[in-house]
Design a protein that fits this description.
The protein has seven helices and ten strands. The protein has about 250 residues and is an alpha/beta fold. The protein has a single domain, classed as Alpha-Beta Barrel (TIM Barrel), CATH 3.20.20.70. The strands form two sheets. Strands 1-2-3-4-7-8-9-10 form an eight-stranded mixed β-sheet, with helices on one face. Strand 7, helix 3 and strand 8 form a beta-alpha-beta unit. Helix 2 crosses helix 3.
C-alpha cells in the first residue's frame, strides 16, 4: 500500500507476512482446466499440499477447493480416500486457495464486475463438514460484503453426508448451496462406496436435506435446488460391490 509512510511500510514488512500458500504446480490441460498444487509451510510439513482446480464452462468458471489435507472417509472411488487424514485446513488456508486462483486469473484487476471465477465448490480433498469451524469462518470471509463478497448461492458445499451439520449450511451460513455426494440409491451399495453411510444412512441424510430445504424455502419450480452427485463406475467395480453384498448379506457391519 503506497499511501502508507515508508516507516510504517517497513514496520509492517518486518512484523507481518501475507502468504496465501506456495504454488508447487500450476498445470493447464487441453480443455483449459487449471490445476494447482498448493503447499502450506512445507519446509516443516512436506505433506501439507492440497489440490485446487479451476473448471471452465461456457458461461462460468468454478473453483474447486480443498478443506482438509488427506481424508478420513475412505470412499472407494476417490484417490484422496487412499490417503490418511493429516489435518484440517485453517480458514486462511481455505481462503488462500481462492486468492491464488483469483490473482492467477487477474480477477482483482478487472475493471467490471465480471470475474473469471464466478462459482466456488468445496469438492476437493477432505470432507468439508468435518472441518466445520474453519469452513464456517472461510465462507464468512469469502461472502462478506467487506470481504471478498462472493454470492452465497454460488458457493456450494459438497458433503458425503454428515447429516447433523447439513441444516447449518442454511441456518448458520445464510444459505450457501448444498451438494450431496450420493453415488448409490440404496444403503447396501452405499455402505461400500461411501462408508460414512454406515453412520448416517440414506434416510438420515435425506431427512437432513429436507430440513435444509425448509430453512432455505426451497420449493418445486422455484430455481433453488440440492444437487445429488454420482460417479460413473465401471461395471466391473459395480459387480465386485454387489458380489461383496451377496457374500456378506448376513454379516453385521
Amino acid at each position: 500500500m503506497k499511501n502508507l509512510s515508508k516507516d510504517l511500510q517497513q514496520e509492517l514488512a518486518d512484523q507481518y507476512d501475507i502468504s496465501y500458500g506456495e504454488v508447487k504446480l500450476d498445470k493447464l490441460s487441453d480443455d483449459q482446466t487449471r490445476k494447482f498444487l498448493i503447499g502450506f509451510n512445507t519446509q516443516q510439513d512436506p505433506r501439507a499440499i492440497v489440490e485446487t482446480v479451476i473448471i471452465p464452462e461456457q458461461r462460468r468458471s468454478t473453483l474447486c477447493v480443498s478443506s482438509q489435507i488427506g481424508c478420513s472417509l475412505k470412499c472407494k472411488f476417490c484417490h484422496t480416500g487412499t490417503q490418511q487424514l493429516e489435518r484440517n485446513l485453517t480458514s486462511g488456508e481455505i481462503v488462500g486457495q481462492y486468492m491464488i486462483a483469483a490473482h492467477t486469473t487477474h480477477d482483482f484487476e478487472s475493471s467490471n464486475n465480471k470475474k473469471t471465477i464466478s462459482n466456488m465448490v468445496f469438492m476437493g480433498q477432505g470432507e468439508p463438514l468435518y472441518n466445520w469451524r474453519q469452513l464456517q469462518k472461510a465462507i464468512h470471509i469469502l461472502t462478506h460484503e467487506q470481504g471478498l463478497h462472493l454470492t452465497k448461492s454460488k458457493v456450494t458445499v459438497s458433503t458425503s453426508g454428515v447429516a447433523p451439520l447439513i441444516p447449518k449450511l442454511a441456518s448458520d451460513l445464510g444459505g450457501v448451496s448444498l451438494a450431496i455426494s450420493l453415488h448409490a440409491t440404496n444403503n447396501s451399495l452405499r455402505d461400500i462406496l461411501v462408508p460414512l453411510n454406515k453412520t448416517y444412512s440414506l434416510e438420515t441424510v435425506l431427512e437432513a436435506c429436507r430440513t435444509y430445504a425448509a430453512h432455505m424455502g426451497i420449493k418445486r419450480g422455484r430455481g433453488k435446488r440440492i444437487t445429488f452427485e454420482y460417479v460413473m463406475l465401471d461395471k466391473t467395480v459395480q459387480s465386485m460391490a454387489w458380489k461383496w453384498i451377496q457374500v456378506n448379506r448376513n454379516a453385521s457391519y
